Amino acid sequence: MEVELLETERGRIASDLHDDLGPLLSVIKMNLHLLDTKDKNDLMILGKTSTHIDHIAKRLREISNNIMPYTLQKKGLVTAITEITELLAEGNGLSIKLDNSVTDLAITKEKEIHIFRLFQEVLNNAIKHANASEIKIHLYEEKKELNILIKDNGCGFDKEKVMDQGKGLGLQNILRRAGILKGKVYLETVPGSGTEYHFRIPL
């Protein structure tokens, strides 16, 4: 119940950022362009201000997407996963290959959120901690289960050591999400040879 309430609140905040602040920034930028001046200094300041507004709008979209992706709320899990892989690949300069044979999933919104968070956590770990330059993802349905395979070419890790030392917060979050979904997790990793996750989530 606590997780559900947290995700509901995150969704509300993300919607407020996307629906209220985003359009407001667009109006401010439009009003700037309506100002009539020929002074070179004023024009330079207006140009810089317009650029700053663009940067703020971009960061606002990124923050909103991290809190609760707009696409997940409006278009569902499969589209949201496709979008986040494209955004992460572009934003981090790495190769993310998505092989997806899933077109539609008849699952609850709560389950969609947990699966997306699971997916998001694995990708963030691969980028931030494993220093991966390539990630391969395969999504498919089999025997009323959603299968998610995620493999990276990063540095890998000693999972027993990480868990024993209490340093694997990201891994703990992944296992906790999988547990909430009543899913199975298969993890293969050793230092120096990348990491591979296989999730089997009942639908």
Question: Main traits of this protein?
Answer:
Heat Shock Protein 90; 2 domains; 5-stranded mixed sheet; 60% helix
What can you tell me about this protein's structure?
The protein is α+β, with helices and mostly antiparallel strands. Helices cover 60% and strands 18% of the residues. A 5-stranded mixed β-sheet has the order 1-2-3-5-4, with helices on one face. The relative contact order is 0.10.
Give the structure's gist in a few sentences.
The protein is α+β, with helices and mostly antiparallel strands and 203 residues long. It is 60% helix and 18% strand. The radius of gyration is 20 Å and the shape is elongated.
Secondary-structure topology with pairs:
Layout lengths: L1 H33 L5 H28 L2 H6 L1 H16 L2 E6 L8 H20 L5 E9 L2 E8 L6 H6 L4 H12 L3 E6 L5 E8 L1
Helix pairs in contact: 1-2, 4-5, 5-7
